[in-house]
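Sorry to interrupt, but I need a hand with the structure work. Could you write out one complete protein record for me, on any chain you like? Just paste the record in under my message, thanks.

. . .
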Amino acid sequence: MLVEYKQLGEAIKRDEEDAEAGIISEPNREQYAPQLARLLRTAGEHNFRTLRLNGYSWDADQVQFAFLFDYPPNAGSREPQSLYDCILASDGPFKLDLKYRFHVAQTVSRAIGAFHSDGWVHKSIRSHAIKFFFSVDGQRCNFSNPYLTDFEFSRPEGGKTRLAARAVDVERDVYLHPERYGLKPNANFRRIHDIYSLGVVLLEIGLWQTAKEIHDDIIECNLDGDRPTGGLPAQTIKKAFLQDAESRLPHRMGNAYKEAVISCLDGKWDQYVGREFESEFQKQVIQKVDPRAWMS
């Protein structure tokens, strides 16, 4: 069983009156957790590519919800491998061939599109959140069935975002849209921010290199290894991602795949609303990471 936590401590502490009154263990203080549980229970019907939700519970001591997910049918008990770990492994049995790279890219893109269609944002899209499970004997990793995980920060798109200051974590933050980057985000989270993060993951799949490695390469090449406090500026990272997509992706994954990544990273998504947004995401991303687009 895979367990994820949705922590509420900081949100509850923000309400000083309730904190002083000792009201810190009320699960109804966070409506998104029950809503998320209801959504995930029907995930198989919506193509979210999530694990089956077994149940969720409230942990008053830690001020958090625990979500319990079953492993896929016919999977062994070995801990799943993330896409991030596969990329870091570089060679050997965890290096996905071209067929599986396209398959994972399109499967994850469809899952995000389905999640958005239901009015939700994921808020933690990165290669760490894409998991592969092993066979019963623990010897073979099933790359044909990627699963989307890490729903700790997920909420309805119209819900509130807590724009609280937090410590910089370059390995996590490198996936964030520039509006959401840094010590304190300057914009409420929207699905265009998820799409940017998806673009970073698609870039990782195409180059078979983690976003953090690309970030560190910029430092080595341009700053002689001198690491700035808090990492590189968000726009510098975005520019490097776009340059890599333009120059390095075509001969690896084809022009259509390159265009999908650039659309995610630099697309004008705000001009699309309602169903038009979904159809444009289908045309600009999902269809272009299809291996048939590469073959044509």
Summary: The mean pLDDT is 86.
